[in-house]
Amino acid sequence: MRTSGAIVAAFATALVLGGCSPSGRDAAGGGAGARQPPAESAAPAPVASPARDTARDTAGDGKIADVAVGQEHSCALTTGGSAFCWGSNEARQLGSGNDSSTLAPVPVAGTHHFIAISAGAGYTCALDERGAAWCWGTGERGQLGTGRPSDSSRVPVAVQTARRFAAISSSVSHSCAVERTGAVWCWGANESGQLGAATPALSALPVSVDGHSFRDVAAGPSFTCATTVDGGVDCWGVGTPNAGSAGPLPIPGLHEIVAVSAGANVTCAIDSSGAGWCWGANDFGQLGAGRLDRRDAPVRAPLRIATDAPLVHISVGDGRSCAIAAGGALFCWGINDNHVLGANTTEGCPVEGRVIPCAPQPVNVAPALRFARIAVSQYHSCGATIDGRLYCWGTSMNGNLGSGDDSDVAEPREVRLP
To answer: Which alpha helices (DSSP H) does 138-268 contain, by range?
Structure first.
């Protein structure tokens, strides 16, 4: 399964217009020099989330602060720190305390005050206000970080580390988080080197990534990228220009980068001027540069996204991406076969003898809305507006759109929390 490698950042109530960085949060580990973090302390015994306080089972504690999408499920955080998820629960990825899928949002079990959330394929991870990481859903490849690859959980369980994090990103079967010191730790599958560790074995406990001090991290299906404190981007794993690297290597030509997002064979970044840059596969216009490239010839040098609007937030999915400009305008590009772009497109891209709708350059989505956060996956997208409302659109897969029914939605439709 594929999932969004969307940017998931530590929560700030002034999401776009309140002076925070384009990644949606203050940078983690600012000023920390490149160093190897100290050895990990002994992990405590696994801890399950406490029973949920029914007083926090509604959305009344705040508006929508952040969103996350997996392949067949979605999640949102309120400004009060409550988490809600909806869609498929076959892998227990909703964290609701049961195995039931749902067409509408349900609260995640426990009394946590979450500040960041990221959805993988069949699991979800989040950070609480102390910087502790929690995950739920399937853990067959170590995705939950509990120390036991066979674990799965209906409720949030603690990632077994004493580290405190400022950002987290989950992909198909691994997650990475940025420690408050600027160190990056990863756990889960590692067959492509996506953990940044020298061994090909998976790790059910967080392992440190040796390299620069980092500000942000983005997990892709088979690779990981992170922004460095000096404004560069380092990547490791398979699916990047430095394919096969078991440790961080810089992407040439990028400067003053403040945000990064990774998806299926594509990575995008935003610099301090608001210019967006993408590299990787471009046979469907996934790079947003206004051109198409052969499937067997991925673009290795970052191309600028073809928009003059200064960008402040970006999310890369599977075959398509979306970005938010200053002021809240939403732009999307790439494949449009599953209504994921949320707007009609007139261009077509050749795919195995047929032509499918696509947009090689950004198109404005829902011009009447102003967005603060966006998350893109293979089949659907969800976004939070500046005024704290939640919208989803695309192809319905087991209720991932949260609309209360299982029908496709071709343009953003508001989702109501209970």
So the answer is: none
